[in-house]
Amino acid sequence: EAKKLMNDTGFLQSLREYDKDGLASNLKLTSKLQRYVKRDDFQPDQVKKVSGAAMSLCMWVKAMDVYARVARSIEPKKEKLKGAEELLAEAEGKLSAKKAELKLVQDKVAALQLQLMRAKSKAEKLEQDAETCKVKLVRAEKLLGGLGNEAKSWEKKSTELDKSLTNVVGNITLAAGFIAYAGAFTSDFRSGLVRSWLEKCDEVKLAADANWKLSEVLCDPAEIREWTIKSLPSDDLSVENAILVTRGRRWPLMVDPQGQGNRWVKHMKKDLNLSVIK
After folding, report:
1. Biggest alpha carbon distance in the chain?
2. pTM score of the predicted model
3. Residue 155: CB partners within 8 Å, gap ≥ 6?
């Protein structure tokens, strides 16, 4: 009969769903259970010698026995806790009722205060709006005057931008040639080289700025201003050399008898912990 029961596919599920609390309240059943639990041969180590499955079942029976005894011992405490919780719930109910009455009074006071605050806020906002309108009118007059002056500046910039877009291919071509070939030459030779390139561009119908300058194509005034702050001389030759150093893809060889380039590089890379090796 035991083997038939253990071979049942729902046997493990029945053990999981067993009514432990029902066992704890059934003194007659737990008394019968003691006859087996207290036997010397009903121990997991002893049962394991016969069957591993029987050992697991033995451990389950003992666990149910322990649960039943512990549950019976704490049952009176549960009853006391239940009574205390009922008293607490009753007291909390009375407290909630009083709080509700207090909240009604507080809500009425808050509503009156809100009305007063809104009235004051509305009066203050009207005063602020009046002042804001005055300020906006003054600013609008100034803006209209300023926009009239800016219109001319925008027209000039628009014309320059259109011209720049027309010459962009030729300007970049000259810049690439300058970076690649002009680094080793003097200022005069560079100027002559650029003039010859401009003539060649004109021959092949490649649009380029007639007053082409490397600094205007590959750099902006803000960056040049930062270089001069960090010890770079402001003449065209020095600016061109700085562009060659920063825009070239190879390491530059700087012939620097006056040490100007040396000082500039040290100041530029000071924040990067530049190491000077002699």
Report:
1. 119
2. 0.45
3. none
